[in-house]
What we know:
Elements: H1 30-33, H2 44-51, H3 63-74, E1 78-84, H4 94-100, E2 104-110, H5 121-134, E3 144-147, H6 152-165, E4 171-175, H7 181-191, E5 201-204, E6 211-216, E7 222-225, H8 241-247, E8 256-260, E9 264-268, E10 272-278, E11 282-288, E12 294-298, H9 302-311, E13 328-335, E14 340-345, E15 349-354, E16 358-365, E17 370-373
Parallel strand pairs: 1-2, 1-4, 2-3, 4-7
Antiparallel strand pairs: 5-6, 6-7, 8-11, 9-10, 9-12, 10-16, 11-15, 13-16, 14-15, 14-17
Helix pairs in contact: 3-4, 6-7
Amino acid sequence: MSQISQIRRCYNCGAVLQSTDPNKEGYVNKEVLENNSQNFIFCNKCFEIERFQPKTNEPVVGEDLIKIVQDAKDKDALLVYVINLFSFEASFSRKIDEIINGMNILIVANKFDLMPKGTNEDETREYVAHRFRAEGVRVEKDNIVLANAFDDDTARSIIAQIYELKNGKDVYILGSLYAGKTTLIDSFLRVYKNLSQGNIVSQEYPGTKSRVLQLPLSPRTMMYEIPSIPNNNSILHNLDVPSTKKIYVTEPVEYRDIALKEDEVLYFGGMSFVELVKGKKTSLRCYFADGVQLKKRSNNKCEEAFVKAIAKKAVKPVCSRIKSVKDLDVFEIKVTESNYRDIGIQGLGWFNFLAKDQTFRIYVPKGVSIYTSRPKIDRK
């Protein structure tokens, strides 16, 4: 009599799974290997290295942008840094941050009009300053202007501040993709007065292959709209056009409160989800576009269930790039302090909760960044 049994392999690296020698490839804890209900098993090495990454991703910037920003610093130029206030926390590049620290900086926190009604302006400026300082860029809240790039009055105000701060130097406009940098420039052009004999031109920046828009501010100074910081670590980089329209915020956000227990996960559409691994029942105040469906379910085989829900389009909108659990990155966040915290997904939104010895796991498409911070909006 003969018997055939299937050899089980690591779902990520393909090594034959074994539970006898921790120093050999494919090692996994015996109880995990003997659990026949698990269709997808990772060896311990892949589970630690590939699945639970020690840090989040950051945008990958090109050498042209680095050179242009370095030129701005060498020229002692004014840097106008435009951010998308709804989702900017994971948009920083360490290479760029190292260059701009110590520069003359004006931060334009764009899309303040999309924050929930009643959001405090002074607290928002302090929050933005805090996030920049956390990235190693020294700024004060007085260096921050809250803006709606579609508002010509705001554009006039920003232009006035630029002339006041630039000290006879050039001006460089920096910002991430989807921050509203180009829209802000369009607003500038509607109210812009050319005080020089020069022309507005678009041409390659010296020493690079990148085209920049040049606006003369005076006979001796120029404003440069330089290439955007990529959004390749944003969920927006992973979506088709219909799904992007669903998650892209165009109206003031209204929060939704949802309670989560240890035996539950919460879907953020078919793009991401959070699991409460440890902790008492926790109320999550969720800040996402109305088009993002929030849905709770049991955490039983949560990754496989999420992939199946996407395939069946049981949640909306979906990230069509997620075909299997291998297309997900997982981050674990442990919180111990007894105060409110935010956890967010770059390009999608965030949720706020009272931290009290919880452990969360956040599942996102591969390459997408998450972050945690003190609250962006004070929870009253």
